[in-house]
Amino acid sequence: MFDVTGKVALITGGSQGIGAAIAKEFLQAGLRGVSIMARSEETSMKVIKELTNEFGEGKAVFIKGDVSDRQQFDDAFKRTVGVFNNIDIVVNNAIARGETAWERIIAVNLTGSITGTILALENYIPKYASDNGGVIINISSSAGLHGFPPLPVYTASKSGIIGLTRALGSDFHYKRTNIKVIAVCAGYTDTPAIFTDKSDFLGKAYFDLYEDYMKNLFPQPASAVSKAVVTVIKEGCSGSIWIADNSKPPYEVQLAVKKEEEQ
């Protein structure tokens, strides 16, 4: 059981939706401080104001930055440590959409998660954790597990996050770092990142298929995912993959594991 009380977290994509909900959930759970990294200063400062009003001064800070830029990401870690002296939890949540700009989707969703995970695992949590150890949460999607035909590029980015988590969350890396790496696969969630514009898709056939898929689905609130994240941080094992869907408690997915000689 990982105790979140008094810990410090860095959350990417925290200006709205799931990221903002996670920031609030963290402070409700007893974290000492959260830093929100995002590109939008206007929306982020609204979140900071709301958190400050509810939890008091000095609990939340905004760091402007783009996760696809490694230097900006590194600076966000440095700023977090500079403000709170520690960093214990990192949530890679930033997301890009728009299938036609697939380079951007991969740069933000996948490369950003890789950068955040490696910086946290190798550079920052080992040096600045409040106690011995920490947790990295990578926000993936049910699309990354099952495939989602209308959004193949988005699916690829989220599937890559699962592979990253399984590799860096392995027993080998956990034993040498005492840092858990876990993925939370969010189901259909009511956030500003929901795909709604035809220009987000590779063509009309993709958009029509998306509408057909979604017409019988009902989104869960972002708070359902944020609550799942806190549960998984406390209870999840390193390398585990969890689903947070339909506002139900999160559950772990058991994926096939090959023996070393078969790999």
From TrEMBL:
Gene3D superfamilies the record matches: NAD(P)-binding Rossmann-like Domain
Keyword Ribosomal protein recorded: no
Any single GO CC term annotated in Swiss-Prot or TrEMBL for this entry: cytoplasm
Keywords of this entry: Oxidoreductase
GO molecular function: oxidoreductase activity, acting on the CH-OH group of donors, NAD or NADP as acceptor
Domain of life: Eukaryota
Similarity remark: Belongs to the short-chain dehydrogenases/reductases (SDR) family.
Listed name of the protein: 15-hydroxyprostaglandin dehydrogenase [NAD(+)]-like
Species this chain originates from: Pyrocoelia pectoralis
